[in-house]
């Protein structure tokens, strides 16, 4: 039995509300589930209510036993800090030029380029020649 962590839709027309669930991959979207792991509200109220709530211990447990998150749940878990960024988030726009900068897998941020030792040596030699000309 392949377990998926996915969203199950609740709410009214044009007002979706989702539950994050661990379910068998063969069961329908709103069908039988194994466990409710949290919720996700893409349309928060006027008071700016919570958008998502997750039971982190249970999500970590299901991921540790091999449950596969769906793409929307993978993005939610990345925002919560439980997963590295999905590959499409690093690429940018679909079909656009790919960004070749290295990305930190835990934060999803671009790593700052380190100075190469060759450039620091050339800067040091320039500074030495400038110092020698000013003293002479």
Question: Layout of helices and strands, plus pairs?
Answer:
Layout: E1 3-12, E2 15-24, E3 35-40, E4 52-54, H1 56-64, E5 68-69, H2 71-80, H3 87-91, H4 117-135
Parallel strand pairs: 1-5
Antiparallel strand pairs: 1-2, 2-3, 3-4
Keywords: Chloroplast, Plastid, Ribonucleoprotein, Ribosomal protein, Transit peptide
Biased composition (Polar residues): 117-136
Region (Disordered): 87-136
Would you write up a description of this structure?
Belongs to the bacterial ribosomal protein bS16 family. This is Ribosomal protein S16. One of its GO terms (molecular function) is structural constituent of ribosome. Residues 87-136 are annotated as: Disordered. The chain is 32% helix and 23% strand. The chain is α+β, with helices and mostly antiparallel strands and 136 residues long. Strand 1 and strand 2 form a beta hairpin. It is globular.
Structural descriptors:
4 helices, 23% strand, 136 residues, 5-stranded mixed beta sheet, alpha+beta, 32% helix
Termini separation comes to 81 Å
Spatial ordering of strands, largest sheet: 4-3-2-1-5
Tell me the β content.
Answer: 15-25%
Main beta sheet: strand number and arrangement?
5 strands, mixed
* Helix share, percent: 25-40%
Pick out the low-confidence regions: none
Order of helices and strands: EEEEHEHHH
Structural class: alpha+beta
Beta-strand segment tally: 5
Counting copies of identical and different chains, the oligomeric state is single chain
Mean of all residue-level pLDDT scores = 75
- Give the overall form: globular
Radius of gyration: 24 Å
Put simply, the count of helices is 4
Keywords: Chloroplast, Plastid, Ribonucleoprotein, Ribosomal protein, Transit peptide
Family: Belongs to the bacterial ribosomal protein bS16 family.
Region (Disordered): 87-136
Main location: plastid
